[in-house]
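Table 4 source record.
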Amino acid sequence: MSLKRFAAAPLLAALFSLSFCAPLSAALDPEVKKPYTMQVVLHFAQHRLLTPVFQSQVEHELKDGLQAALGDLAQVKIVYQHPRLDEVIAQGMQRALDSWNWLDETKTHFIFIDFVDGRYNIQARQYDGFAGLASPVVRQSQVDDRQLVSRQAALLVDQDFGLAGTLGSTAGKKEGDVIEVSLKGGALGAPLDHWIKKDDVLAVSQISEQGSRRHARRVPWTLLQVSDTPKDGVCRCRLFYRHQDPLPMRRGTLGYRCLKLGTKDASVRLRLISEGAKAKPLGGRQILISSNGFDAEPVDRQSTNADGLMPSPTSQKFRNIAFVKIYEQKMALAQVPVEIMDERTVTIPINDDPKMQMLGQLYRDRERWIRHLYDGLESAAATVKELNALPASAGKGHEEAMAKAQGALKAIDADIFNAAEERENLAKAFREADQKVKQKTTLELFLSEGDKRIADLRARRIPLTQYMVKLAQIIKDVQDPKRLQLRERWERGRLLERDAEFQQAIDAYESVFAQGYEDPQLREELNKLKQGWQTKSEAHRRAHNFIYDTWPRLRTAKEMKDNFAEAKKAFETCKKEHDLLRPQKILRVNVTHLAAISNELEGLRDSDDDKRTAEIIQDLVEKIKDLSDKISEYLRSNKPPE
């Protein structure tokens, strides 16, 4: 259904002037006087010994113990339900939490308790919403005595409670430079000596703003090490990193936060693999490991075997962090700070071609750019649902709707502006690199995925602009409050249409007419929409059910792969029936799926299962992109005239 153009140039100019020049985002609040909100999610397996009485006992003992240990630093709450608990159960704590990147006010610890072979098995892992980071490992323990279960669970939480902080200025910081970190809750007066000490290690996250939402991404191979005892809630930390310029302040970046890791004293085990989709072990590379910075004298030297492994763990234990240098003969390949969490093998992907090493950072920056664009698209998509949830009432209701739409439009424009600026930076870096390394790809191909997502963002702003213009015109011209309310409801239906929620739009339009509103032109538009929305065969009905009920609800790459053939079949059925509506929904969902599996890929490790998942994702991404291109071409070729 097309929106009729009308003369509103002055109004459009005013709306655009308000939305285009979005200011840089405000600095992050370190919340030094705000306690942690700590939520412990308890999940018990089904077993006759894990009775309700026992569960209640664990709950109360765990809460009392944690609250006593944390004091004024945190407010502890024990719960049995969580919006993402099913996801954690299905995927496991490692994979599920690795893919999360949102920010909220809660430090969430998951504790799973089971009884197997005569012992109580306990697993624990946390996600810190302030820093947007998960603790790196799943803690596990076993006890024989049921009276010790709550105590052991508390000890696992204690290892990874993890004070979080906000980094001060990062401008111009180099290897080994000091950065001041303001600790959340650090100014509450609670003692911190148990929770953070000299030489402790913190992971770093980049906090970005996409639309009205904030997201976090761990900065890879970048660590802070506490150099002094914290004072007045501030600790000084030395910066160590692998890749150059690890903490840039670009548009859309609010700043950086960090999370204290539950590191320990342990020996180091390393494995080297090649970078890229088809990783292979790298044997014959020299590894030098130091305990006090990259310039310190190595305390262990080894060469990798044919499997890319160090033949044996280091001869001594390292405290919290190891500084690893990698060579091929006399050529330096990489220097990597490694947090010591346990004695597991740490896999380090490297590129032993110096020229390709130079390109590595460029491609990492591109992937970050694309992830930010997906985050922006998710935020923009949420706006339509938020607007539709507002009450359509006269007076302040219209003001609230206009303000929300205006805020969303400003956010989209800021995302587009930031993405375009980052695109120019990437293009410049690509040209500079291409002068030194003749690449196999072109600049257009290098930027193509991001360019498509920028185009998607620009398409998202069109219906919002139209909604605002129409709403302003209606408020100006319509005096009857009830008629005004119904016309506003109609315009929200248009937003639902542009979001491919056609049944919801039809329901909105029908509700307007059901309340006595009549307009011949709008009635004609509704009839055309209903005609185009009808299913024309049993196969068409099945395609509809898949597109709206099954395809959007898939969460993992494996689920999407298993259903991808059905998605293609549903599109082909729509083409056969000359359906121009339902394919729009597939396009919308495809963008969401690409964002989800991008996060899933980022959280994968080096296990055989994760390697297989990575292969599935890489193949699936290309298939989804190809399907989206075919749908876009079909819709362009058959678009009715305005």
